């Protein structure tokens, strides 16, 4: 396999060609269930400010994105990077590329500054992957705006994970989480 490169791209600077490459990556996986990928609101979720893109040669084979947001946890405001859009092309899986992307995302959050934690929600079956990347599961009620634009509140127990960036794990406040918008 050719060498893998990972680039960090600000959302505002995505070129039309790179948008098309990302659309091809996502649509290969999700088109049948969700339709065409939209970079401004991918499958109804919040868009990202920062995209980490993995390439093998010129081919885009992986992506993870994040967006800075202030959320509330209990009575405390917390500055997070909401992480989503983690995807590895089917022909590139099984090579630890996802872990490399997640570590690059952590590094980009740290370099950006002012981010206390990474934050994500996921399916139960991928929790072990994120745990292997250093993320910690939390238990909390979560409020957000659903993909169809409605307010939703999920009970404690769904997979929510955090990654200490500039704060220590013990400083994560207790209480319900309000994402103040759509999830990623």
UniProtKB/TrEMBL annotation:
<dbReference type="GO" id="GO:0016747">
    <property type="term" value="F:acyltransferase activity, transferring groups other than amino-acyl groups"/>
</dbReference>
<feature type="domain" description="N-acetyltransferase">
    <location>
        <begin position="4"/>
        <end position="159"/>
    </location>
</feature>
<dbReference type="Pfam" id="PF02474">
    <property type="entry name" value="NodA"/>
</dbReference>
<dbReference type="GO" id="GO:0005829">
    <property type="term" value="C:cytosol"/>
</dbReference>
<protein>
    <submittedName>
        <fullName>Aminoglycoside 2'-N-acetyltransferase I</fullName>
    </submittedName>
</protein>
<dbReference type="InterPro" id="IPR016181">
    <property type="entry name" value="Acyl_CoA_acyltransferase"/>
</dbReference>
<dbReference type="InterPro" id="IPR003484">
    <property type="entry name" value="NodA"/>
</dbReference>
<dbReference type="InterPro" id="IPR000182">
    <property type="entry name" value="GNAT_dom"/>
</dbReference>
<keyword id="KW-0808">Transferase</keyword>
